[in-house]
Specification:
CATH superfamily: P-loop containing nucleotide triphosphate hydrolases
Number of domains: 1
Low-confidence stretches: 7-19
CATH topology: Rossmann fold
Largest sheet: 10 strands, mixed
Shape: globular
Helix content: 25-40%
Radius of gyration: 17 Å
Strand content: 15-25%
CATH class: Alpha Beta
Mean pLDDT: 89
Number of strands: 12
Oligomer: single chain
Number of helices: 7
Length: about 220
């Protein structure tokens, strides 16, 4: 169902507390309007669908919340590649910090490198980050499917439990990218954002929303 033609003229203003209380922007303007400001703060969302599209959704989220603490955990691609692919969609991850499980190097202010064998220690790292930044922490985990294949399943489940507890105790918003093993971690997910080749469905909105991917990313039709 297409949105009304005059919808792009609508704006969401941050100074309006009724719209922005306990919300964080998705970075997709029409979607933020329909969600009355964005995703719920304090929630863990599973973004389920084609990985390339799920990643673009996550990049919009990071850029839109760049004034907060945004952390992108990548396990399948080096962080430089993630940043490059986002830039090709004119999405900037300049203010996003990375935890990189794919490549190796010396840690910087931009990136911390880890191995999958160090996955259990990530829980303690994120616990400290959650307590430091609270509701201003925006976290993306890319992607669970890859971790379940290449890491110990129990450690991955424990990581998602730790992320869920941290998000609930301290606030912030978390996106988990993946399609499989949902039953294994269903208790650590508040809502599932389902992306198909044609639509995005968020439970808060009654109907699937048609979208297109343009040179600047995702646009709701």
């Amino acid at each position: 169902m297409p949105l009304p033609k005059d919808l792009p003229e609508l704006k969401v203003y941050e100074e309006n507390p009724l719209l922005w209380k306990d919300r964080c922007k998705t970075g997709i303007e029409k979607l933020d309007i329909l969600l009355e400001g964005g995703l719920k703060n304090g929630n863990v969302y599973m973004v389920k669908g084609p990985l390339n599209t799920s990643r673009i959704f996550a990049w919009h989220f990071c850029e839109a919340n760049s004034q907060k603490k945004t952390i992108y955990i990548t396990s399948q691609l080096p962080y430089q590649k993630i940043a490059q692919l986002a830039e090709e969609k004119y999405i900037s991850l300049e203010n996003t910090s990375f935890i990189d499980f794919f490549s190796y190097g010396k840690p910087t202010q931009k990136v911390v490198y880890m191995t999958l064998q160090e996955l259990p220690t990530l829980k303690d790292i994120l616990k400290g980050i959650h307590s430091s930044y609270g509701k201003d922490l925006m976290l993306v985990l890319d992607n669970l499917d890859h971790l379940f294949i290449h890491a110990n399943e129990e450690e991955v489940v424990n990581l998602t439990k730790s992320i869920y507890i941290g998000t609930k105790n301290f606030g912030g918003t978390t996106l988990l990218l993946g399609e499989k093993n949902l039953q294994t971690i269903e208790n650590e997910i508040d809502e599932i954002i389902t992306i198909t080749q044609e639509t995005i469905y968020i439970p808060e909105i009654d109907i699937p929303l048609r979208y297109a991917i343009h040179e600047t990313g995702i646009d709701i039709l």
